[in-house]
Amino acid sequence: MDSIELQHHGHAVHGHGHDDHHEDHEEGTFLTKYIFSQDHKVIAKQFLISGIFWALIGGTLSSLFRLQLGFPDMDMSFLKPILGGWIEDGKLNPEFYLAMVTMHGTIMVFFVLTAGLSGTFSNFLIPLQIGARDMASGFLNMLSYWFFFASSVIMLWSMFIETGPASGGWVIYPPLSAVQTASPGSGLGMTMWLSAMALFIVSSLLGSINYVSTVINMRTKGMTFTRLPLTIWAFFFTAIIGILSFPVLLSAALLLIFDRSMGTSFYLSEIYINGEALPNMGGSPILFQHLFWFLGHPEVYIVLLPALGITSEIIAVNSRKPIFGYKAMIGSIMAITLLSFIVWAHHMFVTGMNPFLGSIFMFLTLIIAIPSAVKAFNYITTLWRGNIVFTPGMLFSIGLVSFFISGGLTGVALGNSAIDIQLHDTYFVVAHFHLVMGSASFFGMVAGVYHWFPKMFGRMMNEKLGYVHFWISFVGIYCVFFPMHYTGIAGFPRRYYSFTSYEAFKTFGDLNAFISTAAIITFGAQLIFVYNFFYSIFRGRRAPMNPWRANTLEWTTPINPGHGNWVGEIPHVYRWPYDYSKPGADEDFIMQTVPYAQTPSSNLEGEEDLVEDSTTEKAHA
Amino acid sequence: MFYLIIAALVLLFVVIGLLVRAQVLIDIFTKSNEKRGGLSNQINGFLFPVFFVVGLAGFIWVTLSSRKYYLPDSASIHGVRTDELFWITMGIITIVFIATHVLLFFFPYIYQFKEDRKALFYPVNHRLEFIWTVIPAIVLSLLVFSGWKVWSDITTEAPSNAVVVEIVGKQFNWMVRYPGSDLSLGKHNFRKIDDLNTVGIDFSDKDAFDDFMAGEVHIPVNKPILFKIRARDVLHSVFAPHFRLKMDAVPGMPTKFWFTPTITTADMKAKTGNADFTYEIACTEICGRGHFGMRIPLIVHEQAEYDTWFKAQQSFLAKNPDYLKMVPDNLKKLAEESIQDNKKSTTVASLERVSQSVAKSN
């Protein structure tokens, strides 16, 4: 009901240019307001809080397996109360070690950085920043969350079953994941992993379709594409990537389900395991890898682009400067989107894939570094001669740029297939992607929370705690991942329970202990954020209407916007979102809703023509 | 211990909570929250260059101190080239890394908020954009082309005189098969696998008669070596770090990697000053519980030493004559001859070995 009514209003705005209906919906019951809500803002908060929950689980897992890696001789009996039988004689069970690595990856990539990031900010910001009352379909949006919730329940449940959760790595390569007897985690745990991911993909698609149609159809009057904030551009293309790539993962998972339980041989051939030769013939494990990475690589950009979009906005606002090269930024998002689909096989240089294909993918992979470089340079230029306010959001955004650069640069080494022979599946790769996609996206998400918290909850988060949170996290993350490059160069392979049996990998014991200590401290520092977040929801200082003095539309809504976002007419948009510190203007920002007619002293050449438009519009109105 | 940790965490939270509360009250009294360019802003701005300086010092220190743990120089011809490419690439990206971070960390300090200053309205500069699109493009193309050349050389067909070694992965160890005196590997079939015939040698192929299995990988120095790689259950990956060699082992799809080792195990012992030094092969594709333990030693010999070792190996059939029943009737005679030949050669080789060691000890 709500969504239909809202759409009607949306059209009214476009059709007549004015709309004086008030959007004061009656208060629903608790169930419709907070649980099965169709309000994009509530759904965003649901995604956010679920994401925080998952991040804590994923972080705890990493702390546990870092204990094993950093202190292999440690007596872990004290963990018995939570891990029970997975601790055998004071040692972590190696299978459970792999299961934790697998779940850490799955949770962080999908449940935190995909659902928690896109789910939160695309939902929250798209209607608010384009001037819409809600998503194109509030109902699908609600379904999207609840599919995600169901998926979460199954994934969480799988961690408590007797044989343990999936343990074949987050990439779940068959035959390990397909042959149920290959490892305990390939049994029920894997079945639950696949079911959870199938539901997750449905959720992601419902969300993405909504984001794309909302951005295309429901922008307020005057909000042309070239006046969209970069956040929206990023969310828009992220959703497009998701729509095009997630179905491929679904098909990969479906074929795997068939192989597991219906005797097909898509990925299986010539296997002898546990004393018997399997009947499967003619399949190829490489096929799965192609399908998996056809999503898997774009997935990197699904988690990274929204973070970059959020950062673009926050850096511009807090540098009090327009983002440098707005159109170049959009161009590079488009280029990254396109290229993200044709680089996947760089994950497969040494899988036995035809080497010629390897050459092609090396070329394509290194091309994608160019738009990424442009983005990094543009961020730095935006800071140049700014007037920088260090809000916690701003600090995390600068941190993101740093991680994006340092993690991205090592990609230049890894993308080179000749160099990748040695580095593939070593800690060098772990360091690379944890910086460029893990930490960078995570910082984008946290920056977004600090920046839009006032809009979400009508209160401010504690800034000082934010500063402490930032500096511990920033220093901590470098202490964790920077040293991993060195162990990677020394050849340490990923997903190893212990390195002691090898002559070549016996070294670096101290460094591994250092990494583990840093990781646990860094994870501990996230509790500061959790505390700040939940405390501020209830007891934070009350937020002013536009706390960061930003230009975008969300700051024109009431401090606690109801369902429908604006009371009365949706504001019109007259200018782009980056008129910060414009020469001749009284303030250091001019909101998007201010017509050029009102700012004669600061109008640039070419903008004079637009004065005409805005005055005639007013007259008609 | 576990409950102690929980209690400590709770206590920590309570303390932080109280501190925060006090700090908020102070902020309200001093009205420091209402200012944009207050003390906090200055501290944060200052911490970025501090972080840069300390971080750079740490970077240099860890780089210097961990050099001793790196793998020794590559022991294969192609490895020298990929190492060179790697270090050139690392050099370039380190320069970019430091240059961009100088800007990224000093701009926040220099351009921190001041009430009396206005930021520069500077939305676009096409020339700058052009420059930093084209320069990375040129640098990347150079890197790609040099990488591509090396990659194509590495992945060409192995020379026909290459020494062939078959490496087969299973949960959780590697199995090694040599072609025997005919230098030609016999066929394999996964349905022939059993407890003894672990790689599924197919004895209907006469090339298989003299094939032998080895517990370690032995190869001659300065000769092209072709690893024929297979897996019999799940994915594995052959990783010989000292030779800069890695290739997945895929069930149902044989893969290969050829290379030329340049340093014998004995020379490497002398070079590294480590009397226990041994080359190793590890598994780098997650394969289950024992993934981290799939180690097999690899020994690089001088040619003569290798030849002696090679001749002394008993063929699978000679060791397990029961498998003669798997040989088709028309080839039985050939198989028995092969066993006899192998027995002769191993006896001669062991005599040679004895005389060699006697000569050495004298």
Task: Chart the SSEs and their pairings.
The complex is a heterodimer of chains A (621) and B (362).
Chain A: H1 2-16, H2 30-35, H3 40-70, H4 80-83, E1 87-88, E2 91-92, H5 94-130, H6 138-157, H7 188-217, H8 230-261, E3 272-273, E4 276-277, H9 285-319, H10 326-340, H11 355-367, H12 369-383, H13 392-414, H14 417-423, H15 427-457, H16 463-489, H17 509-539, H18 608-620
Antiparallel strand pairs in A: 1-2, 3-4
Helix pairs in contact in A: 3-5, 3-6, 3-17, 5-6, 5-7, 5-8, 5-9, 5-15, 6-7, 7-8, 8-9, 8-10, 9-10, 9-13, 9-15, 10-12, 12-13, 13-15, 13-16, 15-16, 16-17
Chain B: H1 2-30, H2 39-66, H3 77-110, H4 126-154, E1 163-170, E2 173-178, E3 212-214, E4 217-220, E5 225-231, E6 236-240, E7 245-249, E8 255-259, H5 265-272, E9 279-283, E10 296-301, H6 303-311, H7 316-319, H8 332-361
Spell out the key features of this protein.
heterodimer; A: 621 residues; mainly alpha; two-stranded antiparallel sheet; 18 helices; 4 strands; disordered N terminus; B: 362 residues; alpha+beta; 4 domains; five-stranded mixed sheet; 8 helices; elongated
Short description:
The complex is a heterodimer of chains A (621) and B (362). With 621 residues, chain A is an all-alpha fold.
- Please, what is the average pLDDT of chain A? 91
Largest β sheet strand count, sense and barrel closure of chain A: 2 strands, antiparallel
- Share of residues in helices of chain B: 40-55%
CATH architecture of the largest domain in chain B: Sandwich
Largest sheet of chain B: 5 strands, mixed
Count of strand segments of chain A: 4
General form of chain B:
elongated
Q: Give the second-level CATH assignment, the architecture of the domain at 1-13 and 29-221 in chain A.
A: Up-down Bundle
